[in-house]
Amino acid sequence: MIEAHSLTMIYGNGHKATDDISFDIMAGEIVGFAGPNGAGKTTVIKMLTGILKPTSGNVVINGYDINKDPIKAKMSFAYIADNPDILIQLTGLEYLNFIADMYEVSEDVRKKKIGTLSERFGMSDVLNLQMREYSHGMRQKLMVISALIHDPPAWILDEPMTGLDPSAAFELKQMMREHAKAGNAVLFSTHVLEVAEQLCDRILIINNGKIIREGTLDFLRLDNPGMTLEEIFVKLTGRPETQA
Ligand SMILES: Nc1ncnc2c1ncn2[C@@H]1O[C@H](COP(=O)(O)OP(=O)(O)O)[C@@H](O)[C@H]1O
Ligand SMILES: [Mg+2]
To answer: Which residues line ligand 1 (CB under 6 A)?
Structure first.
């Protein structure tokens, strides 16, 4: 459902941020994209969503190439960016309506969705405030709600738990599980391994722009018996102080 084929990204300054990254996320799966800061997670996600054009390689989402068939591809996934600080002069409700317009969500459906999702994330009382008044966590929750309004099959989430309070994080994890169980695909990046450990069917570990290990938790533990995911991760990627 989310296919990355040999994604290489060389930024304008010559920095090779990702090197020949390929994976395929199937319907019904939650896949965690784990790696230290600067590993290349956001770069890959921006190529998946069509924000960045890869130097080489291509992306197919729900059968549509993100660069050849961008509208159809983009209609079929929800995206949460790593930074929720956009369009902060809009009220929460204005922003949600803007997204609902873009994805052609009917008045009836959007009203129902905005109602239930706002309730679930404790945002009902603040929808008429400008987003500049929101805390980071509230902005993040609004991004989550906006991504779920149009209910597409694939979810692509860049560090979605960052800044969420425990109950919002719980709700989001629950929704990710429900979404995958209903036969959809969820890819999320994280540098917090507990989250990956709780949620994922499969984990891709990225370091220095390359996928260095991939598989189920059980598979990753096979050559590292008795180790936690965190210990395996540190062993594979090196300790933080040795990172560039
Ligand atoms: N616009 C850019 N120009 C040049 N280098 C960049 C740019 N964006 C990110 N990088 C570099 O690419 C690497 C990967 O960054 P990123 O994808 O943001 O990693 P992650 O999301 O895993 O923390 C880092 O070394 C980062 O400094
Ligand atoms: Mg990132």
So the answer is: 11, 13, 15, 17, 35, 37-43
Residue 83 CA, ligand 1 centroid: distance in Å: 14
* Domains recognised in the chain with CATH numbers: 2-76+153-242 (3.40.50.300), 84-151 (no CATH)
- What share of the chain has pLDDT > 90, as a percent? 70
Enter the pTM of the model.
0.90
pLDDT at residue 244, rounded to an integer:
45
- CA 225 – ligand 1 centroid, Å: 33
Ligand found nearest the CA of 39: 1
Secondary structure E strands in the chain = 2-10, 16-25, 30-34, 56-61, 64-65, 77-80, 154-158, 185-190, 202-207, 210-215
